[in-house]
Write a structure and sequence with these properties.
This protein is an alpha/beta fold. The chain is built from nine helices and twelve strands. The radius of gyration is 18 Å and the shape is globular.
Length: about 300
């Protein structure tokens, strides 16, 4: 299958709206052309600085704009980060990810950031995470402290440094189908597709403006995953936030739809997640195997977000 960066919204909408089983079947067909069947990349996420973020992302417990009862935590020591990374690799994770509740690190934080990057670089720092979150049109309903083009400019700068990109979004923010299609269109028409595309399901958090948003039907989430797999065939499609609320059958459908990466562990920054024990049981039940750990691959995320 030819990798395209010229997808139109109309083409993506046609994919999204086709019969569900046809869509999932096509997504799995494309998946097997580009990735090993039944193999899933297991990732570990660590929050290196939690809370008091100046951004006003309406879904996020870490925003200083809302009273989510989150207890802020100062940045953690570099040696602890390195130890956590080594333990994650030893446990079978092939990706170690770090999240920090910053818009931009303060000047006083830069020595810390640089030291951590140097140390983690010894293990391998190849990816930078910066989610688009939602469509260009719906974005102002979710965040006002930065604009959509700020997101795209950040991704462009990351590409210029030679780093790989991890970028996806969140479904269930109150958006409609056209917004999910718009998000996918933005990602699939980047000059280079993100090497990793997390598709998060909103975890409503008390105290945030989206705490009472109506829960999105799981089928719509899986449709989004399936279309992402078809239009970005070489990208890892990652199950991120919201997975802990899903049944084994829901997750099996997501893997069938082309998802081949997930976050394991008890917590994703500040939100609960399926633990390693549950994931091992799920893998055994579905006949899945973790992708072989590659200690040269890790990920840095310095964006204010709930996950990834």
């Amino acid at each position: 299958m030819t990798v395209r960066n010229d997808w139109t919204r109309e083409e993506i909408q046609q994919l999204y709206e086709q019969p569900f089983l046809d869509l999932v079947f096509e997504a799995q067909r494309v998946h097997r052309q580009h990735f090993a069947a039944n193999t899933v990349q297991v990732s570990t996420l660590l929050s290196i600085k939690t809370g008091k973020c100046p951004e006003d992302c309406k879904y996020c417990s870490q925003s200083a704009h809302y009273d989510s009862q989150l207890e802020a935590e100062k940045r953690i020591a570099v040696d602890k980060v390195i130890q956590e990374a080594k333990e994650a690799l030893a446990s079978g994770s092939s990706r170690f990810c770090m999240g920090a509740a910053w818009r931009n690190p303060h000047e006083r934080d830069m020595p810390y950031v640089l030291e951590m990057v140097r140390e983690v670089k010894a293990l391998g720092l190849d990816y930078y995470n910066h989610n688009l979150d939602t469509s260009r049109e719906y974005y102002p309903n979710v965040i006002s402290t930065r604009c959509f083009d700020d997101r795209l400019n950040t991704l462009d700068i990351v590409r210029q440094t030679g780093m790989k990109v991890c970028s996806g979004g969140i479904v269930g923010l109150g958006e409609d189908t056209q917004d999910r299609i718009g998000l996918l269109h933005e990602l699939a028409t980047l000059p280079l597709h993100p090497e990793s595309v997390p598709i998060n399901m909103l975890v409503p958090i008390k105290g945030t403006p989206l705490a009472e948003v109506e829960k999105l039907d799981v089928i719509e989430w899986i449709r989004t995953i399936a279309v992402a797999r078809i239009i970005m065939p070489n990208s890892y499609i990652r199950l991120s936030a919201g997975r802990e609320s899903l049944s084994d059958s829901d997750q099996a459908l997501a893997f069938m739809a082309g998802a081949n990466s997930l976050f394991s562990g008890e917590k994703l920054l500040t939100t609960p997640n399926a633990g390693e024990g549950k994931d091992k049981q799920l893998f055994q039940k579905l006949g899945l195997v973790p992708e072989r750990a590659k200690p040269t691959v890790s990920e840095l995320s310095v964006d204010a977000m709930a996950v990834a």
